[in-house]
User: Fold Peptidase M28 from Pontibacter actiniarum.
Amino acid sequence: MKFRHIALALACGFAATASAQDLSTITQEKTTQIVSALSADDMEGRASFTPGIDKAAKLIQREFQRIGLQPLPGEDDLMQTFTMYRAAPREKEVKLDGKKVSPENVFAITDKKELEWKHKGKQQVVKIGENDDFRTALRSLNNEQDVVVLVHPKHEDIFKRYQHYMGEGSVKQQLEEGGSSKVFILTDQLNARKYNIEVENNIEQLQLTNVGGMIEGKRKNEFVVFSGHYDHIGIQKPIDGDSIANGADDDAAGTTAVMQLADYYKQQPQPERSLLFVAFAAEEIGGFGSKYFSEQLSPDEIVAMFNIEMVGKPSKFGPNSAYLTGFERSDLGKLMQKRLEGTTYSIHPDPYPEQNLFYRSDNATLARLGVPAHTISSVQIDQDKTYHTVNDELEQLDMAHLTNMIKAVALASQGVVNGEDTPTRVDKSQVK
Assistant:
């Protein structure tokens, strides 16, 4: 019996030493190197459909190749490329009761290449009056078909903001030939006995790319996903001469974590479950990268998703801590907490439920399909002054904290990776 106790103690000591040695491969030096490169000025803010995002994709691809990842299931290489469509306005001509309306007072929401409407009762006419709430009225139109919307000049400021946004073009995975269209007109005429509307869009076919790879497990068709988005918001209005929104925390930090975790797990023995490491495109313009990724796999085969976003700054719970969005929707958070017992790292429930963070990142698509898909974050989002600004710079990050967050995820995910832990599924009926 004594020898058995000695053997057990030696084995436990060896396991602890091995674990510490394994985690030592996640270094602050490597973390700094990767996040610096991803958030550098020459990436130009990594906006979708720009040379900067293409440059970032190639950097991630090279690192995944160096690590030795296989392509994602169904892919030939590490670049998961897919097609999108952008409909951008080219010409607008509107007449109300025979009077021409300036194009500056018109915007349209439509996928169609051309609209030609004449007053024949086919289009509904809706008024947003002086005392109406513009956003509430806009939401009420979501399920309506073709609509002409007459907007009172009192709403000019918010009208112009929407007009500017729509002027950049709407991006979609598919164009809906039979879909609805809406034309908004800023006017003091809140009755339109006659109208003549012509809108012409420029339709572009564009490409987006997720960068992803796999470590195949013994259970080939049980997948664990580690993810983060690598796009950001590009070039913005200059502040003190700086116009590049570098996106160091959002989400070069999370993408760096995914790359480091891929390297970490590649150096371990073959995992029980297959591990997918994905840097998503286009989170900032609608989560199109994660949507496309989710369509390539059966959600029933995805055991869990560890999505990582904005982990470069300490959380309100202190150093080496983070929170999990949608903590109550599965028991993944509790499983992670259990794995971190006795360490200096901790995971907490999301302290910002009013921010609706569970639905604001790339975990949401798979969560809606029942996957225990959650986002790990540490940003104090209610106080962060650099979010979506040109000041989200490398210098704002706490490199020791970021490195420790990567180590925390490595430890917290081991039970799921080795098949000992299987989180409960998200109740699809409770997800928006």
Remarks:
- Residues 99-193 form one domain.
- The first strand starts at residue 70 and ends at 71.
- The chain has two domains: 23-84+207-430, 99-193.
